[in-house]
Amino acid sequence: ADKDEKARGSLIESIPTEKKKLFKYEVDWSTYDASNLSESVQRWVSKKVAELLGEEEPSLVEFVVEKVGEHLSAKDMVGELEPVLDNEAEPFVIKLWRMLIYETLKANEKA
Q: Beta-carbon neighbour count of residue 61 at 10 Å?
């Protein structure tokens, strides 16, 4: 279990935190698709949207998961979400992208 935690820690450390680097990061979309990570994304988005808006918002969750499935860039995702999330769109996408990168890296390690 200790080894797993160390691996998780180093995975997390390898993910950029700065917006510019994060938004330039090449998400491994083939791993995303092959590993069926949309379920993880859906759970995460659902939780975060509920935290942000104070209630469940299934249509927004579906929209975000759909856009991720279309391999939209982080910058474009911010643009898509600004009308709904306003100034929360960018911090939301930053967290979403870090989670996406983490999940794809983790899936690659298992492969």
A: 20
- What does 53-84 look like in DSSP terms, one character per residue? HSS--HHHHHHHHHHHHTT--HHHHHHHHHHH
Residue 52 · residue 85 · CB < 8 Å:
yes
Read off the pTM: 0.90
How confident is the model over 78-97, as pLDDT tens digits?
Answer: 999 999 999 999 999 999 99
Q: Euclidean distance between the first and final Cα of the chain, in Å?
A: 19
Torsion of CA 99, 101, 106, 110, to 10 degrees: 140
Burial class (CB in 10 A: 0-12, 13-18, 19+), 45: buried
